[in-house]
Amino acid sequence: MKNFLLAGALSAGLWYVLRLLREMWGKKLLPGWFTYVGGVLAWLTVISLVGPVWAIVDLLSVMFDRPDMGVAFEIGSLFILISIVGKVLIDHPEILDYARVQPFLLASLKFEHYSRRRDDIFVELDKHIIKQIHKEQTGRELPETKQRKKFIPHTDPQQALREIEQLRAKPLRSVHLESELRQLKAGEVTDITDTFKLNAAKHKTHDFYEFASEIKISPQEKNLSFKVVFPNVNAQTTFDADRIFRLKQGLYDLFQALRSELWLKPYAEYFDTFKVVCHRVDTDTFGLPIEKPFCSVEIALSELIQRDGKFFVATDLDKIAKVSFSL
């Protein structure tokens, strides 16, 4: 049991470090020379998985050689522990975050240079997430189909471009929409991040979209909340009047962009305020990146609707919203 816990803790620790490195890799913060360090760490992580398996096999061999109640109790406790951990990881896959870490792990195992292009990798990751969502919703694998170009029965290039833009403008519905609406109707806090990410990948209405995550609706509080992580803001960043003005203006424009999203309409009756919590990127005692909140803004949709299409000065944001800084 002791050997299993030690080996499991080692594997979990190495995987946690890989997750942190993956976040830095995705933000292009890892230098090229770090490829070899990451590669060695990836191989150590894979090899470390042998440890827990060996510990289980060793314990079973002891049971067969010298059976006694103490060893049997230890084996029973071990399998109960494995069942509990497995259940938690299945119910909360974001703990391992395997789908997001896998591309970085494979790249590290091959010692692929960290400065190379990652566009194709993230496209494949998006496809994997879409297939996973489809399987959870329908119980079937998403069939591989070749996309066919829509035949446009005319030769007017301007009309063709307009039709293409209309197709692009159509929002993508989440396969979880029905269950999400049931949760909201039952008064439960509901995460709609998947829908946001799918539509943001198709059409980015605001530059802050790529930094936004954890989009949740609380029907009890009638609030839609999310967080924005600014990778270029850290503990050393000085917030003078100009920077604060630009941040407030950017957040106000972000609220207006989000309010106008067509894909958000099915959820509209369950919230009447927006709340964003802004995070900066700091480092912990090990020099690894961590996120810390430094600003929050909460605003009513009625205030945004009232000013839609009108010129807005960011210095007035404090008059129509709850703004707080913790610099």
In short:
With 327 residues, this protein is α+β, with helices and mostly antiparallel strands.
Can you describe this structure?
The chain is an alpha+beta fold and 327 residues long. Helix content is 53%, strand content 14%. It has 12 helices and 6 strands. The chain has a 6-stranded mixed sheet with strand order 1-2-3-4-5-6. The radius of gyration is 25 Å and the shape is globular. The protein starts with a helix and ends with a strand. The mean pLDDT is 79.
Query: Biggest sheet, in brief?
Result: 6 strands, mixed
Which stretches of 5+ consecutive residues score pLDDT under 50?
none
Q: How do the strands of the widest beta sheet line up side by side?
A: 1-2-3-4-5-6
Q: Evaluate the radius of gyration.
A: 25 Å
Q: Given the C-alpha coordinates, what overall shape results?
A: globular
Strand content: 5-15%
Q: Into which percent range does the helicity of residues fall?
A: 40-55%
Question: N-to-C SSE series?
Answer: HHHHHHHHEHEEHEEHHE
Count of helix runs = 12
> How far is the first residue's CA from the last residue's CA?
46 Å
Task: Give the averaged pLDDT, no decimals.
Answer: 79
**Strand tally, please?**
6
**Structural class, please?**
alpha+beta
